[in-house]
Amino acid sequence: MLKVLDSAVPIACWSCSIGHNDSTLFCPHCSKIQPPPGGDYFSVFGLTPQLNLDLPALEAEFHRLSRKVHPDRFARAGENEREWSLADTALLNDAYRTLKEPIYRTEYLLKLVGEEIGEEHSGKDRKGQKDPSRVPADLLEEVFELNMQLEEMRMGRKMGENDPALQADLEQAKTKFEGLLAAVDQDLRTEWQTWDAGGDDARLSAQKTMVGLLDRRRYLSNLVRDVTETLGA
Ligand SMILES: [Zn+2]
Question: What's the gap in Å between 22 CA and the centre of ligand 1?
Answer without folding.
Answer: 12
